[in-house]
Design goal:
- Helices cover 40% and strands 18% of the residues.
- The chain is of the alpha/beta class.
- The structure holds nicotinamide-adenine-dinucleotide and uridine-5'-diphosphate-4-deoxy-4-fluoro-alpha-D-galactose (UFG).
- Nicotinamide-adenine-dinucleotide (NAD) binds next to α1, α5, β5 and β7.
């Protein structure tokens, strides 16, 4: 029995691939490579001495996708494929709707047709919008702050409103907080395309000399040190949550937050990075970034209680592994 990973060549999908290889769990990767290349999967193949079945397909291409469902005995699907740049989604809302929502619709049609037993969807904490209370639990009201966020809400609704997912499939919607870090001493990690928007990829660009300093977007928030707070989760903890979700065959839909449950400010991240990697991170305080929320961190009680999942990595592990990966990239 085989698990289909859509978007499996990307950051989180390639780490999922690493974990599935560790567990000798059969899987096939489908990705159109719009935001990735096969380099991470190739590294894994070399490391594990095993071929990863890979097909360059767009999930909207139903006939090609059908050949994948026909060819492999797929019994579970983890749906990572999607465009994820918030700013880009503001400029290209149609592209985002078409790729993310229509793409998911096409996939869902096949998931139902092929009677898939387990389905996991990559959602995001962005569906909660500006937090009304903290920590955020799964019952927190939803509010999109960007077309990307609206895509995630729309896809969740497509799943929730579909009787197949409610009665015939073990369905999990995982709302990720801020995934960072890398696998196995930096063997694979996140390869940002263009100038990174996210904190860790930009910070790595600074310590590796691509950018002169980190821009800290605002130090006048009502937080302990004035900089915004997020819930950074090690990508290997995140993909482990998927493995646990895959092993739970209870029919119906469950929604889980996947976050560390601890808020870390931008300044705390910088300090943790400097301490564990013994390297200075030059930074400058800049005005606030438009659209940023002050604090966002998860109540992760549900996934702990129901799936027995617990994050194993702390912020120092995250900073250490991310740096190791960026050092590998330079070689
Ligand atoms: P990523 O861009 O590295 O990976 C997504 C992959 O999907 C890419 O390899 C891309 O080429 C592929 N893809 C995009 N559209 C496709 C299509 N139509 N058909 C086939 N492949 C397609 O992103 P990631 O960080 O690995 O994110 C994976 C999922 O997790 C996404 O759905 C994203 O929205 C979600 N998510 C990510 C974060 C984060 O901060 N990384 C946070 C919350 C949720
Ligand atoms: N930040 C900086 N400098 C940078 C980049 C980021 O100070 O160069 C700050 C931001 O202001 C924010 C924090 O670092 O306070 C984290 O920013 P990220 O861009 O890394 O993460 P966000 O929480 O803003 O965004 C992430 C995902 C989005 C998703 C959102 C909500 O990247 O896709 O979480 O779930 F929509």
């Amino acid at each position: 029995m085989t698990t289909l990973l859509t978007g499996g060549a990307g950051f989180i999908g390639s780490h999922m691939s690493a974990l599935l290889l560790e567990y000798e769990h059969d899987f096939v990767v489908v990705d159109n490579l719009t935001n990735s290349d096969v380099s991470q999967l190739k590294k894994l193949e070399k490391f594990f001495k095993k071929k990863i079945p890979f097909h360059k397909i767009d999930i909207r291409d139903k006939s090609s996708m059908k050949t994948i469902f026909d060819r492999y005995e797929i019994d579970s699907v983890i749906h990572f494929a999607g465009l994820k740049a918030v700013n880009e989604s503001v400029n290209e809302p149609k592209l985002y709707h078409d790729n993310n929502v229509v793409g998911s619709e096409c996939l869902i049609e096949l998931v139902c047709k092929y009677n898939i037993k387990n389905f996991i969807f990559s959602s995001s904490a962005t569906v909660y919008g500006e937090p009304v209370y903290l920590p955020i639990d799964e019952d927190h009201p939803l509010k999109a702050m960007s077309p990307y966020g609206q895509n995630k809400i729309d896809i969740e609704k497509l799943i929730i409103d579909n009787p197949f997912f409610n009665t015939r499939c073990a369905t999990k919607i995982l709302r990720y907080f801020n995934p960072v870090g890398a696998y196995n001493n930096g063997l694979i990690g996140e390869i940002p395309r263009g100038i990174p928007n996210n904190l860790m990829p930009y910070l790595l660009g600074v310590v590796n000399g691509t950018y002169p300093y980190l821009q800290v977007f605002g130090d006048d928030y009502k937080t302990n040190d004035g900089t915004p707070i997020r819930d950074y989760i090690h990508v290997m903890d995140l993909v482990e949550a998927h493995l646990m979700a895959l092993q739970d065959n209870k029919l119906g839909i469950d929604i889980y937050n996947v976050g560390n449950g601890k808020g870390v400010s931008v300044m705390e991240m910088i300090k943790a990075f400097e301490k564990v990697n013994k390297i200075e991170v030059p930074y400058k305080i800049m005005p606030r970034r438009e659209g940023d929320v002050e604090s966002c961190y998860a109540n992760n009680k549900k996934i702990g209680e129901v799936l027995n999942w617990k994050a194993k990595h702390n912020i120092s592990d995250i900073c250490k592994d991310a740096y190791l990966f960026s050092q590998q990239l330079k070689k």
